[in-house]
Batch of 2 targets.
Target 1
Amino acid sequence: MSLIMKVFLLQILAFLLFGGGLHCEASTRRHTFVVREASYTRLCSTKNILTVNGQFPGPTIYAKKGETIIVDVYNRGKENVTIHWHGVKMPKYPWTDGPEYITQCPIPPGSKFSQKIILSSEEGTLWWHAHSDWTRATVHGAIIIYPKNGTKHPFPKPNAEVPIILGEWWKSDVNAVLEEMLATGTDPNVSDSYLINGQPGDLHPCSKSGTFKLMVDHGKTYLLRIINAALQDILFFSIAKHKMTVVGTDGSYTKPLTRDYITISPGQTFDVLLEANQRPDHYYMAAKAYSSAQGVAYDNTTTTAIVQYRGYYTPSSPPSLPHLPGHNDTNASVHFTSSLRSLADAEHPCNVPLNIGTKLIYTLSQNTFPCANDSCLGSTRLATSINNISFQSPTIDILQAYYYNISGVYGDKFPSVPPLVFDFTAEDPPSKYDTPRNGTEVRVLEYNSTVEIVFQGTNLLAGTDHPMHLHGYSFYVVGWGFGNFDKNRDPLRYNLVDPPLQNTIAVPKKGWATIRFKASNPGMLQALMSSITHTKNKTLETATLHIKEIIFLNITIC
Ligand SMILES: *[C@@H]1O[C@H](CO)[C@@H](O)[C@H](O)[C@H]1NC(C)=O
Ligand SMILES: *[C@@H]1O[C@H](CO)[C@@H](O)[C@H](O)[C@H]1NC(C)=O
Ligand SMILES: *[C@@H]1O[C@H](CO)[C@@H](O)[C@H](O)[C@H]1NC(C)=O
Ligand SMILES: *[C@@H]1O[C@H](CO)[C@@H](O)[C@H](O)[C@H]1NC(C)=O
Ligand SMILES: *[C@@H]1O[C@H](CO)[C@@H](O)[C@H](O)[C@H]1NC(C)=O
Ligand SMILES: *[C@@H]1O[C@H](CO)[C@@H](O)[C@H](O)[C@H]1NC(C)=O
Ligand SMILES: *[C@@H]1O[C@H](CO)[C@@H](O)[C@H](O)[C@H]1NC(C)=O
Ligand SMILES: *[C@@H]1O[C@H](CO)[C@@H](O)[C@H](O)[C@H]1NC(C)=O
Ligand SMILES: *[C@@H]1O[C@H](CO)[C@@H](O)[C@H](O)[C@H]1NC(C)=O
Ligand SMILES: *[C@@H]1O[C@H](CO)[C@@H](O)[C@H](O)[C@H]1NC(C)=O
Ligand SMILES: *[C@@H]1O[C@H](CO)[C@@H](O)[C@H](O)[C@H]1NC(C)=O
Ligand SMILES: CC(=O)N[C@H]1CO[C@H](CO)[C@@H](O)[C@@H]1O
C-alpha cells in the first residue's frame, strides 16, 4: 500500500471515529441505554461498576436546541435506577425527568422505561446521570446541545470540542461506602481519587497509560465542555500556563470571562474556550477539591490529564502543573463564581423577574438525629435539612400522588421562611438547634408567579458550602453574600441587569445566595441540596416545590 493511500485511509478512519460518529449521532433521535455492570480497573484494582452500555463515563447525547429525544432505558443491573436529564427543563412534561419518587418510580432490574428528553431554551452543555442512591457515581454522561440550524454560538467557531467530565473513584464498591455510611451514621469514606474523563491521571499509581490526553495544534481554539459529575465536591480546575475563557454555563451563554482557574460545583457545567497559544510542549490540566468545612475529611488528591501540542519538540519533563487554589480558599471559590454574567444581548435577552410575587427564605443546615438503640456508631446520625425539615422520601412518587389525588403521600405545608430565626452564621450556633424534624412537605406555587428564593446557609454542626440544584428550571442568580441575609440592605445590591442563568449553584459557606425565576413550567420541581446525607437512606436533601397547573400525562404508579 502506498503512503498516500495509508494517509487517506487514516483520514477516513479519523472521520468515522470523530467527525462521522458525531454527525451521525446528532441526527439520531432515539438512543438505547442499557444499564449494566462492567468491570473497570483503576488505581491498581478491579471492580464492577454500574454503567450505561458498558461505558464509563457514559455515552454523550448530541442534540440541537429545541429537539426531543427518546432514550429507551433497559435496567440490566441489580438495583433500581432512574436517569435524570440534569438542567433540561422538560416543559410541561416532568414525567420522565428521572428524580426517583419525585417525578417517577424507579426502574426495577429487568425492566425497560422510555424516557423523553424535551429540550427547549437550553443551548450548550448539560449532562445526564442516574438519580437513585449513589448510582450516579458511575452512571453519567454529557448532553451537548448545538444551536438550531441557521443560528450560531455567540463566539468564534472553535476548531474542535472536547467533553471534560470530572468524576470521583472509590476503590471499594460505592454501595459498600453508602451502606457503611448508613450503618455508622457518619460521613462516608472520601473517594480515592478524582477523575478526568474516567481516569485518575498519572500522578496516581497504575494510571499512566490511561491518562486522558488532548492533542492540540498550535494556534487553534478548543471548546472544553466541562462537567462536574463528582458526588459532592466543589472542584478547582486549571490548565498549566493557559488561560481559559468561560462562554457558557448550565446550558446558557455568559459574557466571556477569562481566568486561570474555574470553580465548578457538583452538577454544574462550563463551556470554556482554550487557545493553544503557548510554546509547543505538554501541559497538565488538573482538578482538586475546594473543601471548606473545618475538620471534615476530604479527598485531597489531584487528578490530571494532558494537553499535548502536535509537532516535533523535546517535551519538558515532567509537564508543568497548574497552580490551583488551596483546598479551603473560599475567596478563590467565590471570586470566580461571582464574576459570572449572562450574555444579556438582543439575541439572548435577560428575563430576570423584577416584580416578585412569592418570596421564600430557605435555610440549609447540617443536622443530627439522635441514634436510637445503638443503631449507629455514635450517639447521633448525620442529616441535613431545608427550613428545618429533613426530607423523607415517599414510596409513591409525589407527582403521581398529585395527579391521581392520592392523599397521605405528601403535605403542602413546606414553610416559606425559617421556622426559627437565630444567628444562622454565628461561629457556634446553639447545639439545641442541631435536630431537625422529618417531613415530606411541598410548597405550592401559583402558575406563572414570579418567585425569589434566598438560600441561607447555617453554621449548625459545621458550616460548609451547599450546592443547590432546581429541577425543571434555570434561575437567575441575582445576589449573594456572607453572613445572614438582610432583607432591607442586601436586595439593594442585586444584579438585575445581567445575572447568570444557572441550574446549579454553590451557596457560600457562612453565606447566602438569591435566585429568581418565573414559575411557568408546571410539575413537581425539587430544590436539591446535593451534599451527601444520611436520613432514610437518601443521599439528597430536598425542598419540593409544586407548580399548580394541570399536568398532561400519566404513567404507571410504583
Ligand atoms: C424498586 O422500584 C419499585 C417500583 O418501581 C418499587 O416497588 C421497589 O420497592 C423498589 N425497590 C427498592 C429496593 O427500593
Ligand atoms: C439542519 O441541517 C441539517 C444539515 O445541515 C439537515 O440535515 C437538517 O434536516 C436540518 N434541520 C432542520 C430542522 O432544518
Ligand atoms: C472506609 O475506610 C476505613 C478506614 O480506612 C476502612 O477500614 C473501611 O474498610 C472503608 N470502607 C469501605 C466501604 O471502603
Ligand atoms: C492527604 O491526606 C492524607 C491523610 O488523610 C495524608 O496522609 C496526605 O499527606 C495528604 N496529602 C496531601 C497532598 O495533603
Ligand atoms: C486553610 O488550611 C490551612 C492548612 O492547610 C490553614 O493553615 C489555614 O488556616 C486554613 N485557612 C482557613 C481560612 O481556614
Ligand atoms: C481573592 O481571589 C482573587 C482571585 O484568586 C484574588 O485576585 C484576590 O486578590 C483575592 N482576594 C483576597 C482578599 O485574598
Ligand atoms: C429501642 O428499643 C426499645 C426496647 O427494645 C424499643 O421499645 C424501642 O421501640 C426501640 N426504639 C426504636 C426507635 O427503635
Ligand atoms: C427544628 O424542629 C425541631 C422539632 O420540631 C425543633 O425541636 C427545633 O427547635 C427546630 N429547629 C429549628 C432551628 O427550627
Ligand atoms: C403564563 O405565562 C405565559 C407566558 O409566559 C402565557 O402565555 C400564559 O398565558 C400565562 N398563563 C396564565 C394562566 O397566566
Ligand atoms: C427521622 O427519620 C430518621 C431516619 O429515618 C430517623 O433516624 C429519626 O429518628 C427520625 N426523627 C424523628 C424525629 O422522627
Ligand atoms: C435503610 O437501610 C438500612 C440498612 O441498609 C435498611 O435496613 C433499612 O430497611 C433501609 N430503610 C429504608 C426505609 O429503606
Ligand atoms: C394521555 C396519556 O398518555 N394517557 C395514558 C395514561 O396511561 C394509560 C395506561 O398506561 C395509557 O393507556 C394512556 O395512553
Note: The chain has three domains: 22-146, 160-337, 358-547.
Target 2
Amino acid sequence: MMSEENFTLKNFVPRYSFYPLYSAWPKEIMTESKSLIKTTYYQEMESAKDILIYIHIPYCQELCNFCGLNVKITKSKDEINSFVDHLIKEIKNSPRCSNVKGVSIGGGTPNFLPAKELERLIVFLHQHFNLSSEAHLQIEIDPRYITLDQLNIFQKFNFKNLIVGLIDFNSDVLALSNRHQGPNQAAGLELILNQNYFSVTAEIIAGLAMQSKESIKFTLDYCLNSGVNSFNIYPLFIAPWNPNSKIHIQITQNNKSANFSDNRFELFKFACDYLKSHHITSVGPGHFATPDHWWNDKLQKEDLCYCISGVFPFIVDHMLSFGPSAISSSSSIVCANEKVTDRYLSLIQKKEDCHSSFFVKSKSQIAFQELINQLFAKSQTKIPSEILENPSFLINKKIIVELELAKIEDQSIKMTSLGREYFGHLLHLLDPKI
Ligand SMILES: C[S@@+](CC[C@H](N)C(=O)[O-])C[C@H]1O[C@@H](n2cnc3c(N)ncnc32)[C@H](O)[C@@H]1O
Ligand code: SF4
C-alpha cells in the first residue's frame, strides 16, 4: 500500500491495465467450483449491455527487444492461416452476446494475418455478433508490414481507428530495438494516411536506448506534420519475461555522458508536455488527440472510456476476449485464456476449455470496477458506499484531494484534468484493497 510519505506524482503509474491486477488473482479459484463460476460468467455475459470484443493475434515476424506483450515469433504462414480457424472455434463456443458495441483487434501484430484471413475473421465477427453498422472497430497495425489489400479490407468494414506502432523515427533507436528490418515504417504510415479514411493513433515509447528529447521531438513533429491525429505515449515497461528489454536501461546508463536521459518517466513527461504545448489535448493517461479529433467530442459527451484495450467511444461494461492470454470481464468474474499460443491452439484443437484462470470479484471489487468504468467518462459520479466506508479510501482521500487528482464532495467524485492524466495513480489510491 502506498503511504502518504512515499507518494509523489513523480513515481506515477501511467497505465492501469485492468482490475483487479492479474498478480492479485488467487490461484485456488482455478479448481474450486469452476463449473459454477463458468455458468455465472456465461449468464452475465449473455445479458450484458455495452460489450467490447477483444481479439488477440499474438504473431510477429521478429521480436522487438523492448516488447512487453504476449507474442509468438514465427515465419510459418500455415500456422497463421489456421489461427483464424481456432479463433472462430473459440468464439463459437463462447457466450452468445447480442449487445456488442465495439471490436478491438490487437496483438502481437494483427496485420501479420494476410488480407483474406483478416476478412474471414471480420466477416465471421459480423455474422456471429450481429454487429450494427454503428459498431466501433479498431485494430493495431505494424506499419512496416501494412499492405493496400489489408487497408482496403479495413475500409470495406468501416474500421474507425488504426493504432499504428511508430515507436520512434530515429534509425539508431529502431536498430537497437531490433526494429530496423523490413520496409520502412514511414512508407507504411504514408500508405495508411493516404487512404484518408481512418483516424490514426501513433503508439510511441519513451525511454528506449539512444532516445533523447530531440529524437522524441523529431518523432512527434514527424507524426503531427504527416496528419496523425492522436497519440498513445507509453513509458518503456521492462517486462520480466523479455530479458532483452533490460538492454535499454543498460545502454542508456552507459551513455549518460552522451546526453541521453536515463529517466524514461522524464522522457514520457517531455513527450506529453511537448504535445500539450502544441495544443494537442490530453484525454487520459498518455492519450492525446488533436482538438478536432472525435475523442474530444466523446469526452465532452461523457462517452469516452478507458480500458485495457485502449480508448473507446462508449462505456465498456463488459469485455469478451479471445485468443491466447486474452482477459474477459463480466459483472462479477474476470477470466484469462491460456497464455502460451501453442497450448492455446492445442486446447482448442482438443475441444477443451481454453480458460486458464478465473477470479471472482468481491462486492467491493464489483463496486470499484463500476466506479472505474464511470469515472473516466462522467464528469461527476457517485462513490459506492463499499468504497466510501473502506479504511484505505478514508486515508487516501486526503492525498487525492491535496494532489488535485479529484474533487470529492459528500458521496460524489469528479476527476480533475490532472487526475485524468494520472488516472493510474488515482485508481491505486481509490482501490479498496479487498
Ligand atoms: C500491439 S503493438 C502495436 C502493433 C505492432 N505489434 C507494432 O509494434 O507495431 C502495441 C504497442 O505497445 C507498445 N509497447 C510494446 N511493448 C512495450 C513496452 N515494453 N513498454 C512500453 N510500450 C510497449 C509499443 O508502442 C507497441 O507498438
Ligand atoms: S512491439 Fe509489436 S511488433 Fe514488436 S514484438 Fe511487440 S507486438 Fe511484435
Note: The domain at 363-430 is CATH 1.10.10.920 (Arc Repressor Mutant, subunit A).
